[in-house]
Specification:
The protein is of the alpha/beta class. It has three domains: 4-84, 3-Layer(aba) Sandwich (Udp-n-acetylmuramoylalanyl-d-glutamate--2,6- Diaminopimelate Ligase, Chain: A, domain 1), CATH 3.40.1390; 99-310, UDP-N-acetylmuramoyl-L-alanine:D-glutamate ligase; 319-473, Alpha-Beta Complex (Protein-Tyrosine Phosphatase, Chain A). 30% of the residues lie in helices and 23% in strands. It has 17 helices and 23 strands. The strands form four sheets. It has a nine-stranded mixed β-sheet, sandwiched between helices. It has a seven-stranded mixed β-sheet with strand order 21-20-19-22-18-17-23, with helices on both faces. Strands 2-7-6-5-4 form a five-stranded mixed β-sheet. Helix 7 (196-204) runs parallel beside helix 8 (225-235) and helix 9 packs antiparallel against helix 10. It is globular and about 70 Å long.
C-alpha cells in the first residue's frame, strides 16, 4: 500500500500533477532519498529545486515543487503547488486527518528527543508506532513527520521545538495530539524570551492543539509548573503530573548504580520498579513521564516499564561508550559520555551528576589514578545572563567532585576562571583547539563527559577521543 498517490496528494495540496505516480515515502534530502520517495523541494540554505533532477535520477516517485526546475524533463513526475512548504504542511494535515492513531506531542527545554525515543521503544511493542528518526521538531520537521505517517498507524509521537515565541502552537494544531507532554522548562533560548516564565508559556502552547478531552502530562517538580497547570485549566486539558512532588505519577526513589538507573514510582494505582540501561536522574524523570503518556494514550504502562530498558540515548545526547585505547589490553580503556548536542544549566547539572557517579579505573593509564573529567563547551542562547550562568556552574556540587575540567569557548572561560587551581585543566577559544591536544587531556582509566551546545562544536572533541582507540558500545 503506497503512502501517497498522485490523486491523494493533489486532493491534499490543491496542486497539479504532471502524471500519475505513487510514493512510498517523503524526503527532503537527496543524500538519503530512497527509490519511490516523494522529494519535497524545500528552500533553506539551498533551493531544493536545484536538486530535483538528482532526486528523480535516484528513483524519486515525484517531486513537490513550485515550478518546473531547469534540466527536468517535460514529462517528469511533478506535483506543482504555489508554495512548497505550504504544500508539505497540507500533506501533513491530510495524513493526520486520515489516521485513527493515538497521538502524543512532546516539547520541553531538555529531553524532547530522548523522551520521544523512549516512547518509540515502548510503543512499537504495543502497535504500529510512527515517529521521526531524527530531531525533526521545527516548522518543516513537524509537517514532514506527519506527511510520512502511514494511515494504519496505531501510535504517533510528534516532537515539537521552538527558538522564538509563537512557534509551538501552530505546529501543535497541525499535529492535533491526544496527549501533550512538557518534559521540563529550563534556561534555554533566553535570548528570545524575557524570562523563564515566558519560555514556560510558549512550551504550554503545545496544549493549544489538543483534541477535545486531551490530556497534558506535565512536570510537577519545575518552578514553572504552576504556569503549565494554569494553562491546562484555561485550555480545558486534563493535567496529569509526573515528578517527586504532588504528582499523579510519583517518583519515589532513583538510584544511580554503575551503568544503570533504578527507579521506583507509582501511578494510576500501580507501583513500579524498573530500570534504564544508562545512569541519569534526569532520564528517570522523563521515563516516569513516558509511563504517564503511555497510560494516557490507552497503552499498557506495565509493559512499557519492562520494555524501556531497551532505550539508550541518541548520539550526542548522553550516549555512553567505552573507548579501547589498546585493543590487545582490555583494561586500557576510557569511559566516554557523549553529550555534545545540547546544553543549558539544567541539562549540564544533570550530566555532571552522571559523570560524578561514574567509577574511573586506577593503574591502567600513564597517570596512575583514573579521573573524572569534564570537557565543556559554551552553553548558547542563554540571553543577557549567560556569563553569570556559566560562572555559577562552578558552585555545582557534582562539578566540584570532579578531578579535572577542560573548557572551550569565550563563555566557558568564565567558568574556567572560577575553578580552583586543582580542577582547572585547559581552556581554548574554540573546541577545535582542544582536539589536537586530546591525548594529553585524557588518559586510559578516565571517565570523561563531553558536553556543550551544538554550536560550540565540542563534538570535535568527541571525535578526537574516539580516534584514540576503538569505540565499543557499553553492554546493557
Amino acid at each position: 500500500m503506497s503512502l501517497w498517490t498522485a490523486q491523494d496528494a493533489v486532493a491534499a495540496t490543491g496542486g497539479k500533477t504532471t502524471c500519475d505516480w505513487q510514493a512510498n515515502g517523503v524526503s527532503i534530502d537527496t543524500r538519503s532519498i530512497q527509490p519511490g520517495d516523494l522529494f519535497v523541494a524545500l528552500t533553506d540554505i539551498r533551493d531544493g529545486h536545484d536538486f530535483v533532477a538528482q532526486a528523480l535520477d535516484k528513483g524519486a516517485a515525484a517531486a513537490l515543487v513550485s515550478r518546473r526546475p531547469d534540466g527536468v524533463a517535460a514529462d517528469a513526475p511533478l506535483l506543482i503547488v504555489p508554495d512548497v512548504l505550504k504544500g508539505l504542511e497540507a500533506l501533513g494535515i491530510a495524513a493526520r486527518a486520515r489516521t485513527n492513531a493515538h497521538i502524543a506531542a512532546i516539547t520541553g527545554s531538555v529531553g524532547k528527543t530522548s523522551t520521544k525515543e523512549m516512547l518509540r521503544i515502548v510503543l512499537k511493542k504495543q502497535g504500529n508506532c510512527h515517529a521521526a528518526e531524527a530531531s525533526y521538531n521545527n516548522h518543516w520537521g513537524v509537517p514532514l513527520t506527519l506527511a510520512r505517517m502511514p494511515a494504519d498507524t496505531d501510535y504517533a509521537i510528534i516532537e515539537i521545538g521552538m527558538s522564538n515565541p509563537g512557534e509551538i502552537a501552530p505546529l501543535s494544531r497541525m499535529a492535533r495530539p491526544h496527549v501533550a507532554m512538557v518534559t521540563t522548562v529550563a534556561a534555554a533560548h533566553l535570548a528570545a524570551f524575557d524570562n523563564l516564565a515566558g519560555i514556560a508559556t510558549e512550551k504550554a502552547a503545545i496544549m493549544d492543539g489538543l483534541e477535545p478531552g486531551g490530556i497534558a502530562v506535565l512536570n510537577s517538580d519545575i518552578e514553572t509548573s504552576a504556569i503549565l497547570q494554569k494553562y491546562a485549566a484555561q485550555t480545558g486539558a486534563t493535567p496529569i503530573l509526573f515528578g517527586t512532588t504532588a504528582a499523579d505519577w510519583a517518583i519515589t526513589d532513583v538510584r544511580l548504580s554503575g551503568d544503570v538507573t533504578v527507579i521506583s514510582a507509582s501511578g494510576d494505582g500501580q507501583d513500579y520498579l524498573f530500570k534504564l540501561a544508562v545512569p541519569g536522574r534526569h532520564f528517570a524523570s522523563n521515563a516516569v513521564g513516558v509511563l504517564a503518556v503511555v497510560n494516557a494514550l490507552g497503552g499498557d504502562p506495565v509493559a512499557a516499564a519492562l520494555d524501556i530498558v531497551e532505550w539508550v540515548p541518541p548520539a550526542g545526547r548522553g550516549t555512553r561508550e567505552v573507548i579501547m585505547i589498546d585493543p590487545f589490553n582490555e583494561n586500557e580503556k576510557l569511559d566516554l559520555i557523549d553529550d555534545a548536542f545540547n546544553a543549558n544549566p539544567t541539562s549540564l547539572a544533570a550530566s555532571l551528576e552522571v559523570i560524578a557517579a561514574s567509577t574511573p579505573i586506577d593503574n591502567v593509564g600513564q597517570i596512575i589514578k583514573g579521573r573524572r573529567i569534564a570537557i565543556l563547551g559554551d552553553m548558547l542562547e542563554l540571553g543577557p545572563d549567560a556569563v553569570q550562568m556559566h560562572r555559577d556552574m562552578a558552585e555545582n556540587p557534582h562539578l566540584q567532585s570532579l578531578d579535572l575540567i577542560h573548557c572551550a569557548g569565550p563563555l566557558m572561560h568564565h567558568l574556567w576562571q572560577a575553578l580552583p587551581e586543582r580542577q582547572r585543566g585547559q581552556w581554548a577559544e574554540q573546541a577545535s583547539d582542544l582536539s589536537p591536544q586530546i591525548s594529553r587531556l585524557v588518559d586510559a582509566g578516565d571517565a570523561v563527559l563531553v558536553k556543550g551546545s551544538k554550536g560550540s562544536k565540542v563534538s570535535l572533541v568527541v571525535d578526537a577521543i574516539r580516534k584514540l582507540g576503538h569505540p565499543r558500545p557499553r553492554e546493557n
